[in-house]
Amino acid sequence: MSKAWGLIAATITTAATWTHDAHGNEAVSLELTRDGRPAATIVVAEKPTRSAQLAVAELQEHVRLISGATLPIANDAADVTGPRILVGESKATRALGLKNADFKPQEYLVRFAPDLLVLMGRDYLSRTRPIG
Question: Are 62 and 10 in contact (CB under 8 A)?
């Protein structure tokens, strides 16, 4: 799991700095860190799933290892300003029309928007029991 989140964090960090996509279209810019300081906040539900908790810890640590900045973590009851990284289902993702139950098992979403990155999906502990 740690290697996967490291790759995701590196990909996000790289993707967040691109100004054009592969087709030459202007892409969304999202600054996660600036000069070794956090520029974004990780946001989770008030009662996040274990999968979301692990994802937040792994994402925060890998961004710190890459940039030197420790991104703050807030729950979705907090009034967060500036760029946000939404991890797992929360009030904020539901407001965007996104729910874990809408995903197939082991299906995930990485979505960029202005000042917003959404990371969520549906994990399964076994073939019959959802965990996130």
Answer: yes
